[in-house]
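Blackboard transcription, Thursday session:
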Amino acid sequence: MSRALVTDLYELNMAASYLHREMDAPATFSLFVRDLPSNRGFLVSAGLEACLEYLEEFHFDDDELAWLRTAGFPEGMIRQFETVRFTGDVHAVPEGRIVLAKEPLLEVTAPIAEAQLVETYLLNQITYQSALATKAARCRLAAGHIDLVDFALRRTHGTEAGMAVARVSAIAGFVGTSNVEAARRYGLTPAGTMAHSYVEAFGTEREAFLTFAQDLPGRTTFLVDTYDTLKGVDTAIDVVRELGLSEDVGVRLDSGDLVALARDTRERLDAAGLSWVRIFASGGLDEHDLERFRLSGAPIDAVGVGTRMGVSDDAPFLDTAYKLVEFDFRPVMKLSTGKVSLPGAKQVWRSHPISSDLLTTRDEPGPAGAEPLLVPVVRGGKRISEPDTIDAARERLARDLDDLPQSALDLRRPTAPSVVVSDHLARLTEHTRRALTPTSDPPDQSL
Amino acid sequence: MSRALVTDLYELNMAASYLHREMDAPATFSLFVRDLPSNRGFLVSAGLEACLEYLEEFHFDDDELAWLRTAGFPEGMIRQFETVRFTGDVHAVPEGRIVLAKEPLLEVTAPIAEAQLVETYLLNQITYQSALATKAARCRLAAGHIDLVDFALRRTHGTEAGMAVARVSAIAGFVGTSNVEAARRYGLTPAGTMAHSYVEAFGTEREAFLTFAQDLPGRTTFLVDTYDTLKGVDTAIDVVRELGLSEDVGVRLDSGDLVALARDTRERLDAAGLSWVRIFASGGLDEHDLERFRLSGAPIDAVGVGTRMGVSDDAPFLDTAYKLVEFDFRPVMKLSTGKVSLPGAKQVWRSHPISSDLLTTRDEPGPAGAEPLLVPVVRGGKRISEPDTIDAARERLARDLDDLPQSALDLRRPTAPSVVVSDHLARLTEHTRRALTPTSDPPDQSL
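(Written on the board underneath:)
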């Protein structure tokens, strides 16, 4: 399926002009986050796989071309759109890596029309997936020993976002998802219990629990708060005994004071000899609740994390940009107030443990022992390697998080590691700026 | 394409149990928002069209059934999933209408397995589309005479959300969208200018402006802030004169103090005899900026509203619920702390102008002159009427907004109109609650 029209009109306008003029010199665009949201000390790179699939398939189909005709693009431009494919190179930060403000997550080098046409889709996927992956990582960090399950699908911004949330929360270390299609598509563990409606559909809670345990053996988590939570726990205990269940049983708390209820529930279960029954909590929870559960030592084994993670409610977007940094072998930048960009293709060098990253031009050597974050992923329009796996991304993220200073991990007032611009990149920036501002006034914009 | 697995696992668990037990009595579920976000005085209903398409197509395809087998559902249950279709009735509030907390946006009545299986998708679409439509309506209200264009696609939560934002912002009264696929799909007006990269790709700003105006006549909005905004305006004036342009030209301001720059820009354009050239503004704007533009009398003709509208950054989700309210002709409710629901199928009655809505059981007569918000839309699994149009939804919203008290429209500290529960519904609630709580203790939960 073509997604070439899933773009902003101005991309088509500009590409049409470039193609018409045969301006096919290579352009490098850099995709980065200008500034971190104030409550974020790091970001998690995500969305690259979707971008690479898109780039490999990029083309206009016949219906799209026909529509562009009706939208007023002249026949000569339509014929040029017809043959456009993405033939460029991409360097990118693999999914699951920690990134910071001003560090490119992705750089595209291609004939300028191609590089321009793909802007909107690349920005869309990297922006929202990285925002959501970051939120999921914060939840995972806060939860300590507690297992986390993605429960977000019902309130994500559409089902496409729901799939991405399941995937990026798996990268963050969630152990399962309620999202069945995501489980199928990405090989995740599907997880689910029962709703209050199930309990209400039977004459009594006890009848509901008995029926569910009999019909769905091995999936038995009793939702105990439909009428009265602790009575619900007692009913669950009765049913476990009556049916002689001896494994894979949980009770789910979905309302009220979850820490206190978990303690009371654990006590009742233990007193009944059911210390193996797990306690699952849910209900509008986020990383701050998870931290509270961890610090209180509440006997909660697993938590379903939903809406607030699935929309990243406290930072639902990132201030991303996709900026032309080089055209026809000439570095370029813009000087717009508050939005000055750094010219040239770049590399990010990371030392361990992470204290500050070094931002350089792409070809500069890095410091001894430092690792380059951007790696080649597409050459001449084709992927260089096999599609990445969720497992590999999860391992990268776990390693990078271990490597971050505690100050970056703080949930409320984090301090991100610094990003230092190399001397060479600083000189290139100053040189490029001077070439654009013929006056001798000191520049009034800071980077 | 089947979307039956785009759901939470628990829906499949519960439905499997109901189907297995042949529990096919009708169930009514009510989809509503528990509480408004604190900064919202009203909500705009949206997402119904997507729900109706989904319900009409609902089925499990062979690949999905095969996967469910591997996921451990027994063969008997798989065979029952194979034949499930949505055969029920739906009452809903049409898109574009103002709704308030506790008012059903949609009620499904169907055999309980069917009504349960569709929960997740219906919640997903209604929740995010209504959240985004509400944000777009706030922007439209704040902007006064200024035309608004949707610029959100690059930072929405995926491209599905991007399409919905274009559509619901059109319902809110936006005049165009940058999203080309949405323009094609929904018959909207595509809108777009140029990016900074276009200006940077030429030796000078002047050369870029000349080229663009020649290659894309009739689409000429010059982005003037790449290097120095007011110099950019002067360059645009020169190019307009040199090419003898006499209509359909604009300049776009994308950074800096937009009110001051718009005034200076207007002055220069007018002094050059170009009072017909329009001023377009953009750059991280929301309803508060739009209100400021309006109140300042800034000479801004149109604004591109992007990310903050497209993710509803200050209220990215709604606290929606999909609750069983009647099963087998018996009203039901839950008593969970803080989440008590009202039993029975319902109707919402609205008087004009809107001061308070009346929430009743579905069959109660409404007050004289009041209008019912919920209308039948699906009967026996089939749509009753033709698909709704964006124009019709836009008209409904404009009428309802005119009808709202000023206190509900305040951007910062709105007060929503009240929702009053009818005596009959209050009695039904009390009766149902008593049947569930055999003690004589006074109920300790408020609605």
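Lecturer's comment: DSSP finds 17 helices and 19 strands in chain A.
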